[in-house]
Design a protein that fits this description.
The protein has one domain: Ribosomal Protein L13p, Chain: A. It is 37% helix and 18% strand. The chain contains 5 helices and 5 strands. Helix 1 links the parallel strand 1 and strand 2.
Length: 118
């Protein structure tokens, strides 16, 4: 894989956790020989066939995501089924990768280089 070439992950028939952990690992730059943890490497990742991820109905009920508006009482807790209905599997993959990345100033730059396709 060349430096500017994006890593392509085929998600068809794979579980959500395995796909998202592979994407997070590549976004952090740990697949490059010149990995430094405090400098973003600029790695790009493309996840294809996100709608064909293997996930059970029980798992969709178990996972949840939170949103906070900043106001008192503004915490919204959404189940995985609600997120899938409203925004699709693409959003579930993005949220899973987001939570697997380190919570520092580089996270936003890493997420800009993630592309999720159906």
């Amino acid at each position: 894989m060349k430096k500017n070439e994006p890593k392509i992950i085929n998600a068809e028939g794979r579980t959500l956790g395995r796909v998202s952990s592979e994407a997070a690992y590549a976004l952090m730059g740990k697949t490059d020989a010149s990995y430094v943890r405090n400098i973003y490497s600029g790695s790009k990742v493309t996840v294809k066939n996100a709608s064909k991820i293997k996930i059970t109905a029980k798992k969709l009920d178990e996972i949840y995501h939170t949103r906070y508006s900043g106001y008192r009482g503004g915490l919204r807790i959404l189940k995985g089924t609600e997120t899938k209905e409203k925004r699709g599997m693409k959003e579930l993959v993005k949220l899973a990768v987001y939570q697997m990345l380190p919570g520092n100033k580089l996270r936003r730059d890493m997420m800009k280089n993630l592309v999720v396709e159906d």
